[in-house]
Amino acid sequence: MAERITRREALLGLAGAGLLLSSYAWKDMQKGMNTRPIPSSGEQLPLVGLGTWIQFDVGNDSTERQPLTEVLNLMVQQGGKLIDTSPMYGRAEEVIGDLTSASAVREKLFYATKVWTTGEAAGIRQMDESMRKMQRKTMDLIQVHNLTDWKTHLRTLQRWKAEGKVRYTGITHYTESAHAQLEQILKTEAIDFVQFNYSIRVRNAERSLLRAAQDKGVAVIINEPFEKGSLFSLTKGKALPAWAADYDIQSWAQLFLKYILSHPAVTCAIPGTSSPRHVVDNMLAGHGALPDEKGREKMVALIGSL
C-alpha cells in the first residue's frame, strides 16, 4: 500500500492517465514498446511487464477488481505483455485467470508463475493448480520461486517443457544474498530465465550476475525495481533534472526503470501496481530512448545526491 500512496503523491496534479502522454510519448507509442529477445528462442519480449504481489491479491468485489481489469487493458494497449505471479501471492493467480478468461487481452499476455513448495509430487500438484487457477492449458513461464527445492522442480519443468506444458523455465529470488547462488545455477543448468532484484540504488547484480546471464544466454526479469516504493519517498517533491528529457523521461518512475532497462542483459522489468495511472507511467519507460553509459552514471550520481 505504501507504494501506491507515494506514487499517487508523485503524480499529483495529473487529471488522468492520458495526461502522462507528452507529444513525444504519443508519437513514440505508435511505434510500439521496445523489446529484447529471449536468448533461448529469439522471441521478442517487451521491456516492461507487470508484477502482481499484493496488488492482485483481492477478493470478488467488483470495486477491487475493476481497476485491475483496467490495468491489464492499459498494459497491453501500451505494449506490455509479461504478467508475473506466484502461488505465494494469495489469490493473485485466480484473479488473473478470472480477469483474463473472457478478455480481449487474454491471448496477448505472456503468463509467468512459479512453483513454491518442496517435493516432486507437491510441486506437480501446485503447478497443476496454478494452471487451473489461471485458466491456462499451457504456461509461458514457470519459475522456481526463491530457489525452493530448485533441483527437484527444474527436473519436472524440463520434462514439462519437453511435453509442451510450459514454454520456458526459470529460477527466482528477491535478495542480494541469493545472487551468487543464482549465478552458479544459471552457469550449470539449462534454464531460460532468471529473475532477481536490481535497482538504481541496489546494484549488486552489476558485479557479475547480469554479465553471467548475458554470457550464458539466459533472459533476465527484474523485480523490486522501486525498492518496495522507497525510491519515491527519496524523490518526493523533487523535480526531474532537465537532462532527463534527453532520455524521454517524464517521471521519477521512468527514470528508475530506464536505468534498469538500459543494461543490455535485462530482458524485462516487472513493477507491480493496481493503479491504471501508474501502469501508464511504468509502460512509458519501455518507449523512447534509453540512457547510454554516461546517462547511467548521471542517474546514479543524481540519486546519490538526494
From TrEMBL:
InterPro entries referenced in this protein's UniProt entry, alphabetically: AKR2_Oxidoreductase, NAD(P)_OxRdtase_dom_sf, NADP_OxRdtase_dom
Gene3D superfamilies, A to Z: NADP-dependent oxidoreductase domain
Segments forming domain NADP-dependent oxidoreductase: 48-293
Identification of the protein by name: Aldo/keto reductase
Organism whose genome encodes this protein: Dawidia soli
